[in-house]
Write a structure and sequence with these properties.
With about 280 residues, this protein is mostly beta strands. Helices cover about 5% and strands about 65% of the residues. It is built from one helix and 19 strands. It has one helix spanning about 15-20; strands at about 25-35, 40-50, 50-60, 65-70, 75-85, 90-100, 105-110, 115-120, 130-135, 140-150, 155-165, 170-175, 180-190, 195-205, 210-220, 225-230, 235-245, 250-260, 265-275. The chain has a 19-stranded mixed beta barrel.
Length: about 280
């Protein structure tokens, strides 16, 4: 629902994306081939250190149903079937992995003008139950999430959060890690015409009284080029340059250097995403 609150996982997402999205210090290549028949194909390769990973995924759409299938280099097969508008404002998804026979999962999402509810249950004899809910609207949202492990009869997760969103800024406060840490984030659009944004995220741990933070920025140099920077309290400085060198095809260069370690070598990464 366009006027309703975002799901709980999206609280603080705008600042989180500016600080972390697309940063990668490996070598990645992906080729996406869309199709007018409703079936698309994507091939991805990743070189991490001296190890190469790869997968091929396909997506088929028919009416309200979407089927995603992915096969990786270790012969693992991941499948997800999503049905939109099974009931009004409701989405259902069923997923499983082969050969892991205990990986089956059923997820339900309900979006309303004043609520967003997500739930999931593992399809095995001792499932993990997950529920999250947010009430409010697209400007102000208040919610929480819990996870209950039926095998151990213990709550493995319980968090709460609040978000305030406007077109030019977004602020979020999340009580996370079972109430052991408080995370605050803020992102602000400085200049809409140039796409300049700044963001900050700070985490305080109650048990150790430790604080950590990251600050970053994003700037659109021209319609095809974006530059991002990030600095963290641990001394790590990172930058990213993303270029749309042809329509829907991106080249992303990332670099990171740890200023507090004189023996640390800079990290570099390159990602190519092609979409004919």
């Amino acid at each position: 629902m366009g006027n309703g609150p975002a799901p709980f996982l999206d609280i603080g997402k705008r600042a989180r994306d500016l600080l972390t999205k697309d940063y990668s210090y490996d070598h990645k290549f992906s080729l996406a081939i869309p199709s007018s028949t409703g079936m698309g194909l994507t091939a991805t390769g990743l070189k991490k250190d001296q190890i190469f990973f790869g997968d091929i995924s396909t997506q088929y759409k028919s009416g309200n149903t979407t089927v995603d299938v992915k096969v990786d280099t270790y012969s693992n097969v991941s499948t997800k079937v999503t049905i939109n508008e099974m009931l009004p404002s409701t989405k259902a998804a069923f997923s499983f992995n082969i050969p892991d026979h205990k990986s089956g999962k059923l997820e339900l999402q309900y979006l309303h003008d004043h609520a967003a509810i997500n739930s999931g249950i593992g399809l095995n004899p001792a499932p993990l139950l997950e529920v999250s809910a947010v009430i409010g609207d697209k400007t102000l949202g208040l919610g929480g999430e819990i996870a209950f492990d039926t095998a151990s009869a213990l709550f493995t997760k319980y968090n709460a959060g609040i978000s305030f969103n406007k077109p030019d800024f977004s602020a979020a406060l999340i009580l996370t890690d079972k109430g052991k840490a408080l995370k605050a984030s803020y992102v602000h659009t400085v200049n809409p015409s140039t796409g300049t944004e700044v963001a900050a995220e700070m985490t305080h741990r109650f048990s150790t009284f430790e604080n950590s933070f990251s600050i970053g920025s994003a700037h659109v140099i021209d319609p095809y080029t974006m530059v991002k920077t990030r600095f963290s309290d641990n001394g790590k400085v990172a930058m990213l340059c993303q270029r749309e060198w042809r329509p829907r095809s991106l080249a992303t260069f990332s670099a990171e250097y740890e200023t507090k370690s004189i023996n640390a070598s800079p990290k570099f990464g390159l990602a190519l995403a092609l979409k004919p």
